[in-house]
Structure formats: C-alpha cells, structure tokens
Amino acid sequence: MMKTVAIFRRSTAYFQAHLVNLVCALGLASLALTPSLVPRPTVFQGFLAGLWFMIGFQSGPSVIETIDTHDPSRE
Fold first, then answer.
1. pTM over 0.70
2. 19-43 burial string, b = 16+ CB within 10 Å, else e?
3. What pLDDT does residue 55 have?
4. Measuring CA to CA, which residue among 32, 35, 23 is closest to residue 50?
5. Alpha-carbon distance values, 14 to 30, 40, 70 (Å)
C-alpha cells in the first residue's frame, strides 16, 4: 500500500512540473499569435508560434526554480 502512495506522489509532482511548462509555452505561443502591424505569411506565423512555444516550454524549469527559491513558507 505504501509503494502505491509513493508512486502517486511522484507522478503528481511530475504532472505539476509539466503543467507549469505548458502554461509558459501556451502563454508565449498566444503572444506570438497576437495581431501586429507587420503583415506575415501564414507559414511564417505558424513557425513563430511554434518557436515561442518551444522557448516557453523550456523556460518552465527556470520558473519552477524561481518559485521554489522564493517560497516564503520555507523560512
């Protein structure tokens, strides 16, 4: 019974970490899709959205690190 609980806790932390990555990625991708005054072809717009999605997903661990280091409940 205890192994099941330990595995569940580990998987919950895994999903929480990836949720932060996904939120960062979707935030930057949505900013890339906002209208601009510079007309862009559709393929280039999709490329930029994908690029910013990748950058946002990779910046998730640094956001988690920042949140963990500045947690006031740890003091």
1. no
2. ebbeebbeebbeebeeeeeeeeeee
3. 92
4. 32
5. 24, 37, 20
